[in-house]
Structures are given as C-alpha cells and as structure tokens.
Structure of Rhodanese-like domain-containing protein:
Amino acid sequence: MDGMTVPEIEAKAVPDDVFLLDVREPDEWQAGHAPTAVHIPLGSLQQRVDEVPAGVPVYVVCRVGGRSANAAAWLNHVGREAINVGGGMRSWAAAGRPMVAENGGQPFVA
C-alpha cells in the first residue's frame, strides 16, 4: 500500500458524531479512548471489516497515526471512505478531546 495517499485530519478538527474507528491494541484502548470510538484492533480489521459502515466517512485513529494511516489506506482500497486522524490519540489528548478509560481510572495515552 506504499504510495497511496490517505486523507488526513487533525484530531482537534474531527467532527462530533462521526464513526471513529480505533485500531490500537486492547491494552492501549483500555488505558484511554474516545467515548464514542469503535474498537477493532488493526490485526482484526480484515476479518471484521463488515463492522465498518460503508457510505459514511470513517475516521481512523491509533496512538500516533501510523497504524491508522495503514488501516485507512486499506479501508479506502476496499471501498470505504476512510480518513486518518493525524497524530492519533496523542494529538486527541493534547487537543483536550474527551477520553474515557475502561477501568474507570484517569484516561491516558501510553
């Protein structure tokens, strides 16, 4: 997938009420994620692609933006409309966007 350009948006500019796909590993997800995000680890994405809606923009996020760029490129390749969240959850947290942790503790991005 090298050479494919992927649409990208800054974390602070991601609209509310969009389909936000978090492709990080379970431990990263549990530590802190956007409250409305859907969690499908990158390694499971091909098997679970039917859970990703078609016909609406899908915003893809990881920790710093690399895995989500790969996921977005693949999703676009298979007919979804995917946009990478540049800077990932680190930028999301830095922008003061809402986050929750699975354990009820203080959310953080490892």
